[in-house]
Structure formats: structure tokens, C-alpha cells
Amino acid sequence: MKNIVLLFFLAQGILSLALGQDKYRITYQSFYNGQISKQEPIVVYASPDYSAITKESILSGEQKFPHEYYFIDQQAKLFYKETALSKDKKIAAVDSNVFGKYVYNQTRETKLILGHSARKASLSVNSNAIEIWYTNELNVYGAPNETGLPLGLVLEYMRNGSSSLVATKIEKVDTFPSSVQPPEARYLLDELTYRDILWKSRFIQVPIFKDELISFNPEQVKSDSILRFAEGTVIVKKVKIPEVAGNSQVFIELIEKSNGDAYDRTGSVFLIADDQELTFLDGMKNGMTTLPRYDNGDGNNYLGMIRTDKFSPVYELMRFFTPFGVSHFNDRLTLKGKTWQDSVIYRQEISEFLKVLTGKEVYIGTYIGNYDKGGHKVSLELTIHSGNSSYAKGKSSIALFNTTNVMEMGGQTYATLFGLEKGLQFTFDIPKDIENVQLRYITTGHGGWGNGDEFVPKVNSIYLNGRLSFQFTPWRLDCGGYRLYNPVSGNFENGLSSSDLSRSNWCPGTVTNPIFINLGNLKAGKHTIRIHIPQGPREGDSMSFWNVSGALIY
After folding, report:
1. Where would I find the Peptide-N-glycosidase F N-terminal domain in this sequence (predicted)?
2. Structural domain containing residue 548
3. Cβ atoms within 10 A of the Cβ of 541, count?
4. How many beta carbons lie within 10 A of that of residue 524, not counting itself?
5. Same domain for 404 and 493?
6. pLDDT in tens, 258-315
């Protein structure tokens, strides 16, 4: 870093000696397949010893934040990067490898560009075929990006024969603008830190949990800013979500490590629906028996699992499954050619719930069913990315059902309700006509050993108002690909590990993605939904059950 700062001051001194050199301003237009793109033109200032890459909006102070600017010291072979994160905050870095980074294949081809003879060179950048046309007639060096800087003044840049930057105007200038300077030394960071800060500045991070314990420990359950329920197996936090545009994208990311529990467990990240008089949080605080009971005739109390005229179940944002002891048990078994992962990162887009998140204070929770005092440690955050996504723009949602017993240690029983033909069936009310309706459906089968529904494919049938809407068999065949997340998975005599086995729509160490079932347009009024799964019978102390959740997206 000391050497970089020294070179920085050298650049400042040399820049002051270059006042008599020829200087040019070059404007570059973006094209795609020969058509002008909507991207703002790039402006380059070039001289024999220095160049800068900027935009007119940056020069005028009208560019949105963050925005990046580049200054190139041709003599010292330094490529400066500067980003304005806001009006008052800047960061910068110096890359000393740009000039030796690329191998240029020179050709004999030439052509005129804006009245100047240009030569062609080609190179490969990250498997992209690049062609550049440059000229030495003006005795200056410059380019609209970092390629071609050692060759001369780049007048045309083409990537993969389709995307191009073409010089449309060359103007001789007396001086560079006052803003065209190397970054101030006080802003300089190492390259890795610079890139990390710049990347994170481009989206909104909403931290929820950081290394929080989810374990079964009735004696140690205490709530503060984080609410803890069900003997410590559920954690919930109130989170403020900023107001964002409707074309934004939302992702949820969970990092999980074992803190003592060696087994694969069901996990769920959920959002408390608050659109009705009674919420799931009320049941968590006051007892699950205060929530509506679903009765399918088998005598069990299925509490807080379906929508009623006064209650909404939770939105399930993400269903995940812990692996067998990742991190905590990594040293228990050493295998040749295998290096265990130190954690599992689950990341999933949940933009369909943008409307119930943006600009609100909401309760978001995480559940991992376990009976271990060490349990698991989790970190959870939302990231929100502005852009041009139409995926969730204008979409609304209604929470319908969730049979995942997130309050397993607080009064919710396992969802064995599919053992009867009725399965899950209830009527819900829609206050107004809705169009292009989809059922966001997550399903996983559990229980039993070799004959249980965890290991036996079962057809899921979804009926709306008595008619079959969709039917499929949820099944995962790729569980063996996650072996390195499962250090203490059971191993069998045939060479397989338990984590290798195919399962009913889940694997140890994975997310179970929702499917979206088209339901068409629904009229205002009452509708009946039925989920039928041929659940296997109880075998001794082993039972099968199904965790299913559903929300209407429209």
C-alpha cells in the first residue's frame, strides 16, 4: 500500500508537467447488434501519458450513486478506480496489473474510423472474444475500458460480435476538466476491500440474524430484540424493510452450521402474515391453542395451519434442510479426496412477496426442528436489488396454508393429516376478483425408514373447487451431490451414505424450491382447495407426514 501511495504522488507531479501535451475528448456510443443502445455514452479524455474514463453525467454532477470513474497513468502503468458512494463518500483503489493482464493478437487489418487509420487486435477476456480497433495517429493512449490501453487510442471495441463501443466524436481540448485527476490518497483501499464495498453499495442489505443459536434448551430460552419460542427452536425478529420500487428483486440468504446437532433437520424461514385480526405471532405468544384448529377427522389438533375468516397462517419464504453435522463434526471422519464444507449457504429469490415486505415493519422467523442443546447457528439476511425485473411487479399474495409444524415444541403436531382421504381441505374467501392466480406450493415428504414417505415417491394432487388443477410426484434424485456438506451421514455396506439417498423433494443440505401452479382467474367469494397425498400408514413407532405450504400469488 505504501508503494501505491508513493506512485500516487508521483502521478500527481507528472500530471502537472503534462500541461503542454496534446489532449483529446472522445465520445463512445454503445451498440448492440448494430443498434444504438440506451446506455449513456462514455467519455474518455486522452493524452500521451494520461487518460480518464467517465460519463457526461459524472462530469456534470448529475450521475446517480454509486458511480465509478477511472484514471490511467500510462507512464507508471497504473489503473485507478474511484467510486462516489454518495456526495460525501468516495472509495478508490489502484490496479497495477491491467497493462500486463491481456495478450493482444495483432492483425494486418486496417480501416478508417472518424478519418483516422485504425489497426485491429483481438484478445480473449473471460471466454469472451474481443476485437479492438486502435490508432496511433494522434499519439495518445486511451480506451472506453481497460482493454487496449498499451496499444494507442481505441476507437472501437466489440465483444462476441454483438456488443460494441464505438467512438463517434473526437475533439481536441486545451485542458482536462478539473475533475479528471487521480483519486485523493485518503480514499485509497486495497483492491479486494474496494470491490467488496462497491458491490455491496449496489443493493440494500437487511440483516436479520447473525450467528444466532437455534437449539432445544428450555432452561436458557430468553427473548430480547430476538424473540425465542418453542424451547429455543424458533427465533423471530421485527425488521424494517425500506420502501423500494415494484420492479425490485428480493433474495433471502441463510447460512447454517451445526453447533452440536448431528442430524438432518427440517428448517423454515417464514414471514408472519398480518392481514387479519389474528396472527401466528399471537399463537406463539399466547399459546397455539388460541389459533384455529383444522379437523380432518383423525382426532388430532392441527393448529394454526390453514386460513380462516379471521386468521392467516405464516408465509413460508424458504424451506431448507440441514445436513448431517456440517462444521461442528468436520473432524469426526476423514476421507481421502473429500474436504468437508464449513457451512451451508441457502439463497433463494422471494420477489413474489415484495408487496407484503416493502416499506413495512414485519416479523421474520427461522425454525429448525431439533432436540439438541447445541443445535445450530444461523445467519439470515434479505437483499433487495433495484432493476428492470418484471417477475414480481404488481404481484400480491394471500397466505393459505402451512402444515410445517414450526411450533413443534410449542403445541403444533406433525402433519399426519394426509392419512385420511380428505387430506387437507378447507374453504377460504377472496374479497375481490383476482387475475392470473398462481399457487406457490412447497411440499416435502417425511417419516418412516425404507417404507416411509421420505423414501417412497407419492403423488401430490391439488384440487380447486372440486376440480383437479395439478398433479405431480415430488422427488429429488440429486442428493448425492451434497455429500461434502454431510460429514457424519450414516454409511451403508453398499457404499452409499444416508445423505446420498433420493427423497421426497428434499436432500440434506438443500433448499426445496416452490412450484407455481396456474389457477387462472378467481371470482370474489368462497373457494375450496384440497391437497391429496396418499400418505403411508404408521409402522410401529414410525409415522409418515407431509409438510406443505401454499400462498396465492396474483
Report:
1. 205-384
2. 203-553
3. 5
4. 11
5. yes
6. 999 999 999 999 999 999 999 999 999 999 999 999 999 999 999 999 999 999 999 9
